[in-house]
Specification:
Blueprint lengths: L12 H27 L5 H29 L7 H10 L2 H4 L2 H12 L4 H26 L4 H26 L1
Helix pairs in contact: 1-2, 1-6, 1-7, 2-5, 5-6, 6-7
């Protein structure tokens, strides 16, 4: 290829930002699943919810730091505060990805589920969210048929791996 085709053109800021938010949401949902799988049998429900949220805040801050440092290391100068805010806002979906699984965790607990069961409910919800993320990403790529099914199922597979991890850790 000559590097001049439309396929090789860099993403526009709008598409790049949307892609960054989508990837942050997927990553956040996977982190939620991992913490639920690891802590669901060892923590009580509220401490588990706090652990999930704090873990995501740490990942969000670390990801933001790493990206900003990587983007600006070559320039030999620090980014502006407005750039820092915009960059962190672009990956905030990493944290907001926890809202629905955490809500399901807490609702299951209020309805009488044990922490282990509530964590499993939240993991199932997280898998559903991963499937939605995969489907939305595939639709954004204008995929159809088997390709859309494949990217949707791959996203869900990350959550299934977390359930398998939970079974391995807790049994």
């Amino acid at each position: 290829m000559t590097g001049t085709s439309a396929d090789d053109a860099p993403l526009s800021a709008v598409h790049g930002s949307a892609a960054r938010r989508r990837s942050a949401g997927i990553y956040g949902t996977i982190v939620v699943s991992a913490v639920l799988a690891a802590g669901g049998a060892h923590l009580r429900t509220v401490p588990l919810a706090v652990a999930v949220f704090v873990t995501l805040l740490v990942y969000w801050a670390a990801e933001g730091y790493a990206v900003l440092l990587g983007e600006h290391a070559h320039a030999g100068r620090l980014p502006t505060w407005s750039h820092v805010r915009a960059s962190l806002a672009a990956i905030w979906p990493m944290v907001t990805a926890s809202y629905i699984p955490l809500l399901s965790l807490l609702v299951a607990h209020v309805l009488g589920a044990t922490t282990k069961t509530a964590a499993t409910v939240a993991l199932v919800v997280a898998i559903a969210l991963l499937l939605v993320h995969g489907w939305a990403g595939g639709k954004a790529l204008q995929l159809r048929g088997l390709q859309l099914l494949a990217v949707t199922l791959i996203a869900g597979a990350f959550g299934v791996v977390m359930i398998l991890l939970k079974l391995l850790v807790t049994h």
